[in-house]
Specification:
The protein has about 270 residues and is an alpha/beta fold. It has helices at about 55-60, 85-90, 105-115, 125, 130-150, 165-180, 195-215, 225-230, 250, 255-260; strands spanning about 15-25, 30-40, 45, 70-75, 75-80, 90-95, 185-190, 215-220, 235-240, 240-245. The strands form two sheets. The protein has a six-stranded mixed beta sheet with strand order 6-7-8-3-9-10, with helices on both faces. Strands 2-1-4-5 form a four-stranded antiparallel beta sheet, with helices on one face. Strand 1 (about 15-25) and strand 2 form a beta hairpin. The protein binds adenosine-5'-triphosphate. Adenosine-5'-triphosphate (ATP) binds near residues 51, 52 and 56.
């Protein structure tokens, strides 16, 4: 579905390693010593029934919540306890479950927001319209165009992002995260609320992000069909604990997973 793929990130992208992460909220253990590894260039789904701890896990990875104990590392770089912007700057980008696009900004401007941390020219150089700043701006716009093409929205660059159908707005969000040139992309229910067509299109883009760009993806998703089709590995949570992990086929047949989903007695 894509024509021009943006240049791939370093194919030796590091693994994202979650080790014994525990998160406690007053009296409640939302995550209990959870460990898993997101292999470079893979789609790793985190699933589980309602209240299992998926969002909490996502929020720890993106730095919104601080783990009570345990570590998160990208390669050898410690991410534990860093602020969200610092984690993003180290190459872990996220999308949001609810749309977080400025309502009147064009698609191009929305994508450019993702380039912000990569912008070198200072305020003064840009303000004075120095040639170096102009060159840099051209480079960013070129990249924005490539990424718009990658997500299939090159024809919509000058349209207000808020005027697009919901599924396309979600793709703009994904594109904005890609504009950060991440090593790992955290996707929080990327297809929730979409039509069947939008779901198919988004799933294809997500697969393409892995296959063409080599970016690792952590996918928190309720739609089992999509998880089973897209994921290379699955971590299953229930009541804050990791109850199973493996390939989609392995976890699907795991009695603990079946019990957790069906609520059958032990
Ligand atoms: N900020 C918070 N303060 C207190 N408790 C929280 C907070 N966030 C989550 N929890 C609790 O932690 C547990 C895990 O919630 P979490 O939202 O991570 O689960 P989930 O698997 O994402 O659920 P769902 O599928 O319903 O979104 C729940 O019991 C929830 O009520």
């Amino acid at each position: 579905m894509t024509t021009t793929a943006p240049a791939p990130v370093d194919s030796t992208t590091a693994a994202l390693t979650v080790t014994d992460v525990t998160v406690r909220f007053a009296g409640l253990t939302a995550l209990d010593a959870v460990s898993f590894t997101v292999e470079p260039g893979s789609v790793h789904a985190v699933i589980g029934p309602n209240g299992a701890g998926k969002s909490t896990c996502f929020n720890v990875l993106s730095g919104v919540y601080r783990a009570t104990a345990g570590t998160v590392r990208l390669g050898t770089t410690e991410l534990t306890g860093l602020a969200p912007h610092a984690i993003a700057a180290l190459g872990v980008a996220r999308t949001f479950q609810n749309l977080a696009l400025p309502p009147h900004a064009t698609v191009a401007d929305s994508l450019l927001l993702g380039r912000h941390r990569l912008t070198r020219s200072g305020f003064l150089a840009t303000g004075l319209r120095l040639p170096s700043a102009a060159r840099e701006e051209r480079r960013h716009l070129e990249r924005v165009r490539e990424i718009a093409e990658f997500i299939g929205l090159e024809g919509a660059l000058e349209r207000p992002a808020g005027s697009l159908p919901y599924g396309q707005q979600k793709l703009v969000e994904l594109g904005r995260a890609l504009c950060m040139e991440p090593k790992v992309l955290l996707l929080d229910e990327p297809i929730a609320g979409m039509t069947a067509d939008e779901r198919r299109r988004t799933a294809a883009v997500v697969a393409d992000v892995r296959d063409s760009l080599g970016i690792s993806i952590v996918l928190v998703e309720h739609d089992m069909g999509v998880v089973m089709k897209l994921a290379d590995a699955v971590t299953v949570l229930d009541f804050g604990r990791r109850i199973a992990g493996g390939t989609p086929a392995e976890v699907q047949n795991d009695p603990a997973v079946v019990r957790a989903y069906l609520g059958a007695p032990e």
